[in-house]
Amino acid sequence: MFLLIGIIVILFVVFGTVILAQNGSQLITLHLLGRSVENISVSLVIIESVVVGAIFAFIIMVINEIKLRKILRGREKEIKGLKEELGAIRNLPLEEEENELEKEE
Fold first, then answer.
1. Sequence-separated (6 or more) residues with CB below 8 Å from residue 36
2. Number of domains comprising the chain
3. Over the chain (105 residues), what is each successive 10-residue block's mean pLDDT?
């Protein structure tokens, strides 16, 4: 899986580099949220878009990681409690047999 993701990333980097090389000198007018920016390079727009996308992806990833770690801690606590309960149940018959032996004597 890691290899597949790496190959996809490399393809996007190569593809992006080709686009930037071909369109590096073109100037455009960018209309964004009711504002206009004139004479801005296509390369700059693409690079900024990639950076903003990477930042958003990182923020989402961090939030998801925090949620998963919280769930994992809860499951670890649950497993610990179940192990303690299982240990108590395993020791229970031994205590009962000792009590029965003492009563018989």
1. 29, 30
2. 1
3. 80 80 76 83 80 90 93 96 88 63 62
